[in-house]
Write a structure and sequence with these properties.
By secondary structure, the chain is α+β, with helices and mostly antiparallel strands. It is 23% helix and 34% strand. A four-stranded antiparallel sheet has the order 3-2-4-5, with no helix packed on it. It has a three-stranded mixed sheet with strand order 1-6-7, with no helix packed on it.
């Protein structure tokens, strides 16, 4: 069973690369053959974000419940596991990198605009 933890938006999930559901808030039971399976989920919106994957082993006649929680920002990773997951509130490496790069670009643009204004003035 795939169970999204509280989400503000729908979720898409795949088992072994095959989409099993989308637009689910309550989760779904997905029948699979016994063995190892790769479960991947992502929140929908802005082209999909918060992708996370988990490898699970399903024994014959058993059910494995997988929980997914979307991140708080579009640049962070989602959480997936065999227990209820919490939404990540901390900055991850990509978020810090994007923020620092944006600040550098902004400063460079201001410097170029200032230099051009001084050269023209």
């Amino acid at each position: 069973m795939l169970t999204p933890t509280w989400l503000p938006q729908p979720v898409r999930c795949w088992v072994d690369g095959h989409e099993v559901f989308s637009h689910e808030h309550q989760g779904a039971t997905v029948p699979v053959v016994p063995g190892d399976h790769e479960v991947t989920c992502e929140a929908q919106g802005a082209g999909g974000f918060g992708r996370a994957s988990l490898r699970v082993r399903v024994a014959p006649g058993r059910t494995v419940t997988v929980y997914y929680a979307a991140p708080l920002s579009h640049v962070s990773q989602g959480s997936i596991g065999l227990t209820p997951q919490s939404r990540r509130a901390s900055l991850d490496g990509r978020q810090v990198l994007v923020s620092v790069a944006g600040a550098v670009v902004l400063l460079l643009c201001c410097g170029v605009i200032g230099a051009v204004a001084q050269w023209l003035g």
